[in-house]
């Protein structure tokens, strides 16, 4: 590919000033590669004890891996709060609690729709919330 | 969300349906708490999501379970609203047209049954999302490309069945369907086309049945529940070239259409060519308040300032060619020469060759992304959008006529203008994105009035929509009025013959079974 620069978004190129966050023009922005998700674990989705990281990437990876919609919006929010861009990735957050993760997943928040139990089962959410809930 | 029951269904009868269904799918896959109903509501609802409330949701895992649930729905007279993955954002998401309908969530039926690189097709169940199929193709290193819609979070079949469009050579997604399996409203099971013969290997290859061909009768339809289908895929090309022109002025769209459409019709351009207006680029740069912090539409002088500051044209044509390098080069010369007759500035050109990486936002190369949904953040708050989506003949005169009319109506309602035209051949899909904050009641009310005005004024001019939100399925159906709604009358005759209890998706696209005829036009249009 002769072009690793895109018209789209990349967090590191964001200009944050005076309470507004405007993304810089290309070619300062680089398009991340597609984030291949792991294969969904086989077996009963209702059974507890799944691997939180894998389940997070499978069920939340549409938006919350590098370059995803959720990552892009959260990066902007975290930077406006004075944090580093890497905190836009939920996997890098240290301030999330398991209960908070469960609440946002089931109730939705801002641009994120509530997730049904077919999107992510309670057992899967338990594992995901333990993985993301590094603050307890 | 509290429980809304379907018409004439008692709480006891509703519970009996759920209990019987739990015996089929398992109790964990019958979802009927207030939180479950919220999760199946329209997350972008223009107003209260309780206008289109689900009573519950049931998630079968197999064709046999779907058949059992459909039979139970007939027994208990409880209507079902089938969804593939329920991500039809902007058109109602998973929410049903008729209050109290039970969402039949097919998300657990997510098997990729076949992936054939030789004849370039796959066979999938409805729960297979664009990301799932893309991942499977990458893992198999299969030389196949997808065609994806702007929001690719949803289902491959769900999008095709709702007449979704993408931006590759396979962008008319319903046209890619070949050979459907569907559960009929009485629980019977049919296979269309060559699939009507046991074990016929051409089922997903030859697009017709022996006799009438019903495949498309199951799209935007409540005549059955599609449980699997063949989908034709694009063979991965040797090379691809993207050619990008910024088109400076609004009225330039006329010559753009008159230049590109003939090349598309002749086959020189394979792709569905997407031509978005400038706001499509701006919504990914930040929030509206970063660029204009007053209510009401962004004034024209500010639009011109923004175009200058961010070096945007009023429109952008990012056209993509696919194939062997010598062929792509030759085609590119024809396209560039045609465009040069109107625009001196040289386009940007981006070559891709087999083996090069493909970026995450390359929609025109079939890479799925949910990033276009970031536009919900443009307005802020609980941001949402609806699309007003008429179809017009692909000539500059028709496109300008449509553009001027909708532009004036949108301006009269003091709303920002964000249009795109996708040239699909002899026609163009004109999508007007209307963005709003769900928590600002006056903004939402204004959008609803605007939506009504757009439908009625556009229909007066002779154009109709290709797809719409739940709340406008009846008003749009009304606009298709030839011979006293002859097409709707015919479809409803078929509907009543196949579905005497009206249990499959009553009201879908304005088709109401006799059992629920009294519900027509309820919770519909701007005044609901």
TrEMBL record, chain B:
Recorded superkingdom: Bacteria
UniProt keyword terms in alphabetical order: FAD, Flavoprotein, Oxidoreductase
Limits of the FAD-binding PCMH-type domain: 49-236
PROSITE patterns in the cross-refs: FAD_PCMH
Pfam families assigned to the protein according to its UniProt record, in alphabetical order: FAD-oxidase_C, FAD_binding_4
Cofactor(s) of this protein: FAD
Gene3D superfamilies: 3.30.465.10, FAD-linked oxidases, C-terminal domain, Uridine Diphospho-n-acetylenolpyruvylglucosamine Reductase, domain 2, Vanillyl-alcohol Oxidase, Chain A, domain 4
Molecular functions (GO terms): D-lactate dehydrogenase (cytochrome) activity; D-lactate dehydrogenase (NAD+) activity; FAD binding
Keyword S-adenosyl-L-methionine: no
Any GO BP annotation: lactate catabolic process
Name of the protein described by the UniProt record: FAD-linked oxidase
């Amino acid at each position: 590919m002769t072009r690793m620069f895109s018209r789209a978004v990349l967090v590191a190129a964001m200009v944050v000033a005076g309470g507004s966050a405007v993304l810089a023009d290309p070619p300062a922005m680089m398009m991340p590669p597609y984030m291949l998700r792991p294969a969904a674990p086989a077996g009963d989705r209702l059974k507890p004890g799944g691997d939180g990281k894998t389940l997070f990437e499978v069920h939340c990876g549409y938006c919350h891996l590098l370059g995803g919609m959720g990552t892009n919006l959260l990066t902007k929010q975290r930077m406006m709060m004075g944090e580093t861009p890497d905190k836009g990735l939920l996997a890098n957050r240290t301030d999330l609690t398991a209960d908070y993760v469960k609440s946002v997943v089931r109730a939705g928040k801002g641009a994120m729709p509530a997730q049904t139990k077919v999107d992510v089962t309670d057992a899967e959410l338990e594992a995901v919330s333990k993985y993301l809930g590094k603050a307890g | 969300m509290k429980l809304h029951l379907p018409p004439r269904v008692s709480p006891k009868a509703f519970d009996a349906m759920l209990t019987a269904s739990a015996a089929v799918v398992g109790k964990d896959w019958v979802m009927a708490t207030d939180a479950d109903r919220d999760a199946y509501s329209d997350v972008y609802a223009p107003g209260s999501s309780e206008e289109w409330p689900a009573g519950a949701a049931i998630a079968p895992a197999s064709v046999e379970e779907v058949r059992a649930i459909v039979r139970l729905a007939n027994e208990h007279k409880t209507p079902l609203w089938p969804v593939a993955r329920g991500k039809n954002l902007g058109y109602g998401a998973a929410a049903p047209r008729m209050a109290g309908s039970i969402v039949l969530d097919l998300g657990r039926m997510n098997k990729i049954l076949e992936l054939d690189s030789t004849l370039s097709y796959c066979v999938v169940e409805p729960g297979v999302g664009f990301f799932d199929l893309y991942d499977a193709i990458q893992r198999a290193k299969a030389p196949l490309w997808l065609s994806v819609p702007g929001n690719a979070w949803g289902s491959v079949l769900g999008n095709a069945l709702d007449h979704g469009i993408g931006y590759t050579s396979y962008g008319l997604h319903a046209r890619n369907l070949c050979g459907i399996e569907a559960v009929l409203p009485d629980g019977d099971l049919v296979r269309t086309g060559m699939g009507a013969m046991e074990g016929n290997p051409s089922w997903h290859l030859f697009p017709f049945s022996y006799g009438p061909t019903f495949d498309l009768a199951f799209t935007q339809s409540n005549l059955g529940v599609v449980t699997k289908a063949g989908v034709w895929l694009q063979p991965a090309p040797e090379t691809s070239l993207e050619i990008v022109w910024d088109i400076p002025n609004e009225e330039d769209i006329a010559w753009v259409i008159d230049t590109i459409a003939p090349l598309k019709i002749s086959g020189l351009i394979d792709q569905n060519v997407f031509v978005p207006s400038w706001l499509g680029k701006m919504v990914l740069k930040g929030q509206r308040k970063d660029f204009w912090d007053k209510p009401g539409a962004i004034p024209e002088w500010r639009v011109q300032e923004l175009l200058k500051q961010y070096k945007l044209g009023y429109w952008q044509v990012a056209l993509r060619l696919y194939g062997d390098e010598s062929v792509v080069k030759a085609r590119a010369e024809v396209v560039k020469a045609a465009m040069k007759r109107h625009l001196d500035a040289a386009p940007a050109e981006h070559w891709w060759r087999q083996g090069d990486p493909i970026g995450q936002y390359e929609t025109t190369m079939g890479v799925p992304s949910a990033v276009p949904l970031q536009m919900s953040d443009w307005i802020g708050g609980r941001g949402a959008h609806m699309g007003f989506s008429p179809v017009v003949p692909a000539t500059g005169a028709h496109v300008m006529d449509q553009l001027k009319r909708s532009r004036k109506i949108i301006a009269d309602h003091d709303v920002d203008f964000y249009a795109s035209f996708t040239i699909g051949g002899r026609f163009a899909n004109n999508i007007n994105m209307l963005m709003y904050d769900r928590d600002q009641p006056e903004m939402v009310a204004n959008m609803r009035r605007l939506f009504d005005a757009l439908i009625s004024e556009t229909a007066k001019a002779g154009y109709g929509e290709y797809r719409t939100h739940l709340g406008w399925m009846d008003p749009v159906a009304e606009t298709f009025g030839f011979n006293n709604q002859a097409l709707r009358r015919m479809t409803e005759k078929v509907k009543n013959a196949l579905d005497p209890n009206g249990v499959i998706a009553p009201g879908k696209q304005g088709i109401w079974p006799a059992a629920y005829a009294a519900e027509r036009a309820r919770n519909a249009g701007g005044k609901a």
